[in-house]
Amino acid sequence: DYYLSINGSAFAYAYSVYNGTTSEWVWVSGNGGSYGNSGGGNYHYHFDDPHGPNIDSDNHPEEHIIEDIVTETPPSCESFNYSQVGVTNWQCAAVTGVHELFTVFNWDCIGYDWGIFHQPLYFQLPVNGPFPLASGSTATASAIFLHDAFKAFDIWYKNNACAGSYAAMEQQLLQYIKDEFEEQGGNVTLTPPMGFNGDPVPYKTSWPGYGNCN
């Protein structure tokens, strides 16, 4: 199989593997520009033609569209290094670079967006029975809560991405993350709580599961 770019079009190739099945797609820029979100450009999907298709805006093998091509990679518990907030009954973990890839494939638009928070997010939970201070179980629970937020946002994204701005989507993603932690009596903020002196930890992912922080 091969792909041929014609008329100087810029293109990018990506693939995912899930349960032994490899899915592939090619993004073609209409004007040789960059790629990175839904909006302009054309998406063309790999199919098993031994001679391969040329890639241009008129060549769209609709009958071979692959819909679920992105393998979810859950957050790792190692992303969450909790420490006590001052002398309070609260703990906080600062995480930088929280990100996830979201896709939309329908007849209105086909595309993807990276939801990326370059600045730290401050994940806060009470210190209590379900969330022992700086424990592996608290870190693992936090990874699960964040993953649940990603999954909830993914549903929203598939219904709204075609008409939404990136800024609006970023704000909505943050709200889903906040909602998940608030349901547990916690909070997520863009600024550190007073009394927190912990260092930010780079965001990590894990596959399968949420890592081992026991």
Keywords:
3-stranded antiparallel beta sheet, disordered N terminus, globular, 2 domains, 5-stranded mixed beta sheet, alpha+beta, single chain, 214 residues
Question: If you had to describe this structure to a student in words, what would you say it looks like?
Answer:
With 214 residues, this protein is an alpha+beta fold. It folds into 2 domains: 4-64, no CATH class; 77-202, no CATH class. Helices cover 20% and strands 28% of the residues. It is built from 2 helices and 12 strands; from the N terminus they run E-E-E-E-E-E-E-E-E-E-H-H-E-E. Strands 6, 7, 10, 11 and 12 form a 5-stranded mixed beta sheet that branches. A 3-stranded antiparallel beta sheet has the order 2-3-4, with no helix packed on it. Strands 1-5 form a two-stranded parallel sheet. A hairpin with a 2-residue loop joins strand 2 and strand 3 (21-28). It is globular.
- Provide a count of the helices: 2
What is the string of SSEs from the N terminus onward? EEEEEEEEEEHHEE
- Low-confidence parts, pLDDT < 50 over ≥5 residues? 1-12, 27-71
Distance between the termini: 45 Å
Oligomer: single chain
Question: What structural category arises from helix and sheet content?
Answer: alpha+beta
